[in-house]
Amino acid sequence: MQSDLTFIPFTNWKEGLSQLLKNLERSNVPKEDSGISVSALLNQGTCCIKQQPETLWSNLIIVKSLPAAIYRFEHEIGMKEADARSANRTWSHYRENSSVCWSFEPPPVDLATRYKFSKQGTCADWRRATGPDINFYNLGKKVANAALRHSLMAAGLETDPSSGSLYFPDKPEYRRFIFRTTSGSSWIRPVGIRSFWTVRGSIPVRYHLSPYLTCWLDYGGLDVVRVLIRLHITEIDGAAIRPSTMT
Predict the structure, then answer these.
(1) Backbone angles phi and psi of 35, in degrees to 5
(2) Beta-sheet strands, E only, within 24-95
(3) Contact by Cβ (8 Å): 139, 70
(4) CB under 8 A, 24+ apart: contacts of 189-196
(5) Backbone phi, then psi, for 152, in 5-degree steps?
(6) How far apart are the C-alpha atoms of 196 and 203, rounded to whole Å?
(7) From CA 9, how far away is CA 51, in angstroms rounded?
(8) Each residue of 168-177: pLDDT tens digit?
(9) What was the pLDDT predicted at 120?
(10) Cα–Cα distance for residue pair 17/77, rounded to 1 Å
(11) Of 154, 163, 162, 156, residue with least CA distance to 191
């Protein structure tokens, strides 16, 4: 039965549609008589292609520039895990281990004084630098991604301790976001309550939008940030979802 099937590639949608219409014509497939052939319009390029600009919506944001230098810092006084997470809110940095951090900028004075930070080195051009033990290009990418995470934490987003994902907290200032499009303005609710039907009936849960930002370097010749929006879902009181609820 499959021997008579014809595969038509749609890698180029115009050529694929044109070939499809021709095959339908040869097979005498019934059609509505509109007075003009659809394939003729297609080949003329008058019904599908318009020479005018259009808005391109993408989840990729172009990065205008990145700092050329990254700095290595070490601190003498150790940090507890909670203190290290708190430091991410006030200082954009990538932590290599328990005492070594890399950043585009020095730590704030109060943080540097409290934990006795000191600068231990500088890479003036991390994109082109080479070293026997360090891949500076990958290191710079990690510092850039840490800066994105810092920007979300500095804006007030909370961290899920189990997954590390960031999400909008249940606060009045995050319950309605207004944004603009080419057709006007609209709004979303980053935090709210939704009910899901299960075998035991309707179960309400609280949802939080969870943005996930990733820096892609030299993507098509540009540095871009990919934006993904996930959901962080909890019980109404903010507790983690019980496994029994998810079945």
Answers:
(1) 90, -10
(2) 60-62, 70-75, 94-95
(3) yes
(4) 193/236
(5) -70, -40
(6) 5
(7) 25
(8) 999 988 888 8
(9) 95
(10) 67
(11) 156
**Helix locations, 74-197, DSSP H:** 81-90, 109-115, 136-154
Contact 91, 108 (CB under 8 A): yes
**pLDDT tens column, 185-198:** 889 999 999 887 77
Structure tokens at 76: 């003498």
DSSP string covering 144-158, please?
A: HHHHHHHHHHHTT-E
pTM attached to this predicted model: 0.73
Instruction: Give the pLDDT confidence of 109-162 residue by residue, as tens digits.
Output: 999 999 999 999 999 999 999 888 889 999 999 999 999 999 999 999 999 988
pLDDT in tens, 51-98: 888 877 889 999 999 999 999 999 999 999 889 988 999 999 999 999
Handedness of CA 17, 23, 26, 29 (dihedral sign): negative
154 or 181, higher pLDDT: 154
Distance separating alpha carbons of residues 102 and 176, to the nearest angstrom: 36
pLDDT computed for residue 238 by the predictor: 83
CA distance 143 to 179: 29
Ramachandran quadrant class, 46 (left: phi over 0; alpha: psi -120 to 50; beta: rest):
alpha
CA 202 vs. chain centroid, Å, equals 31
| Structure-block tokens of residue 133 | 């033990």
Single-letter amino acid code for the residue at 206: R
